[in-house]
Design goal:
- The protein has eleven helices and no strands.
- Helix 5 packs antiparallel against helix 6.
- The protein is globular and about 40 Å long.
C-alpha cells in the first residue's frame, strides 16, 4: 500500500500544467520556446503573467499535496515519509511520464515540499528569492540563492537535529545547482536573460514613497 502512495506522488508531480495549458489554449509547446523547459519561469516568459502564475501555483500545490496530503492519507507523517513522497513528486515534475520525461527544473515543486515540511524555512527561502529577484532580475540566480538559504536556515537558524531534514536541505541545494548548470554558465558569461516586472514594481513603490 505504501508503494501506491509513492506512485501517486510521482503521477501527481508529473502533471505538466505548462505544456497542457500551452497546447490546449495557445497551440504551442513551451519546451520549444524560451529556455526550453516546462517550468513556471518559462511559462511566464512565453505564455504571459496570468498563465505563468497559474502554472506556478499548480506546480507548488501538486508537490505540497503529494507531501502533506498523501502522507496524511498513508497515516505516516514522519519527516522521512513526507520527504520521500515530496522528492518523488519533484522527480515527477522534472521527468514527467505524460510528456516524454522532459519537464521543468523543479524549483516551484521543491518549494511546495518545503512549505509542507518546514514553513519557516520556506518563508526565508521565499524572501531570499524575492529580494534577489528585485535587485538582480535573474530568476536563476534568485532560485539558487533561495535553495542555499534553505539548509542555512535549517542548520544555523532553526538548529534542527533531524538528520533526514538536514540531508534533504543540502540535497535541495545540490539539485538546484545541478539543474541550473547552463544558467550558471550564462550568468558567468553575462548572457542570462533578466525579467522586467519585479524591477518595475520596485520602482513604482519607491516613487509612491517619495510622493
Amino acid at each position: 500500500m505504501d508503494y501506491l502512495f509513492f506512485l501517486l506522488a510521482y503521477l501527481i508531480g508529473s502533471i505538466p500544467s505548462s505544456v497542457w495549458i500551452g497546447k490546449r489554449f495557445y497551440n504551442l509547446d513551451v519546451r520549444e520556446h524560451g529556455s526550453g523547459n516546462a517550468g513556471a519561469t518559462n511559462s511566464f516568459r512565453i505564455l504571459g503573467k496570468r498563465v505563468g502564475s497559474i502554472v506556478l501555483i499548480i506546480d507548488i500545490f501538486k508537490a505540497w499535496f503529494s507531501t502533506y496530503v498523501l502522507s496524511y492519507m498513508a497515516n505516516d507523517q514522519s519527516t522521512e515519509n513526507m520527504l520521500g513522497l515530496g522528492m518523488v513528486a519533484v522527480l515527477g515534475h522534472i521527468f514527467p511520464i505524460y510528456i516524454g520525461f522532459r519537464g521543468g527544473k523543479g524549483i516551484a515543486s521543491l518549494l511546495g515540499v518545503i512549505i509542507a515540511i518546514q514553513p519557516t524555512a520556506a518563508l526565508f527561502s521565499i524572501l531570499t528569492f524575492l529580494i534577489s529577484l528585485i535587485f538582480s532580475r535573474y530568476v536563476s540566480l534568485s532560485s539558487i540563492l533561495a535553495a542555499c538559504t534553505f539548509p542555512a536556515t535549517i542548520i544555523l537558524y532553526l538548529k534542527s537535529d533531524n538528520n533526514a531534514l538536514i540531508i534533504f536541505s543540502i540535497m535541495v541545494s545540490v539539485l538546484v545547482l545541478f539543474t541550473h548548470k547552463k544558467n550558471i554558465e550564462r550568468l558567468f558569461k553575462k548572457e542570462e536573460s533578466r525579467v522586467k516586472l519585479p524591477r518595475r514594481i520596485f520602482r513604482r513603490k519607491l516613487k509612491r514613497k517619495r510622493n
